[in-house]
Amino acid sequence: MLGIQIIAFIFCFCGLGAAIAATASNEWKVTSRASSVITATWVFQGLWMNCAGNALGAFHCRPHLTIFKVEGYIQACRGLMISAVCLGFFGAVFGLVGMKCTKVGGSDQTKAKIACLAGLIFILSGLCSMTSCSLYANRITSEFFDPSFVAQKYELGAALFIGWAGASLCIIGGSIFCFSIAENSNSPRRGYAYNGATSVISSRTKVHNSVPDKTPPKHFDKNAYV
After folding, report:
1. Which of 40, 64, 85, 94 has minimal CB crowding within 10 Å?
2. What angle (nearest 5°) sits at the alpha carbon of residue 106, between those of residues 101 and 108?
């Protein structure tokens, strides 16, 4: 049980780190590699900044102008990723409290409920991150394969794959946390024998057995006065 919870927490913690890295990354979409070879420049964008680089290794980034001019799907992805990070943080706190290796959280039954709550929070965090990355990727692919779209076309960036991996880890780790409480509830309970009714009898038996037999042996009756 303890080893399973440790593995689940490692999965969830790595997933939270991946969600943070994906949220802060500027490579959610990048220009096509074929066009970058010809122009020797490429453009990559994230949720917060637009960046441009060249073959010499120099790049320049600028933030999105205002929140009102940002496209709706980018705002939705921002909200989902921030929600995923916040949920992952609270899930990590509840996970530490609910694990058996920690000294806080109360009884084992209470800690099991807290661990299950942490698992549900991590699953929600993974779903938010998965939805955000999938929504962004769907917009990129629809524009890339749309023949009527004449603006700059982009490909999937590394941040999307990091976000998908982190979301998968959070969902897997959260599911393990939830299954750990089921395993704890199915474990056999210890039985205790009730000795209240037999305590008086057993004590009397012990006292009776402890009294020595003072009756002299029979072979002393004949030879006592010889």
Report:
1. 40
2. 60
Q: What is the CATH number of domain 2-185?
A: 1.20.140.150
pTM (two decimals): 0.74
User: What is the per-residue pLDDT across 28-75, written as a single tens digit (0 to 9) for each?
Assistant: 999 875 555 555 677 888 899 888 877 677 778 888 777 777 888 899
**What span, in angstroms and rounded, lies between the C-alpha atoms of 82 and 105?**
28
Directed axis angle between helix 72-98 and helix 108-144, to 10°? 160
Q: What is the tens place of the pLDDT at every residue in 118-136?
A: 999 999 999 999 999 999 9
Helices (H), the chain: 2-24, 33-39, 72-98, 108-144, 158-185, 199-210, 219-223
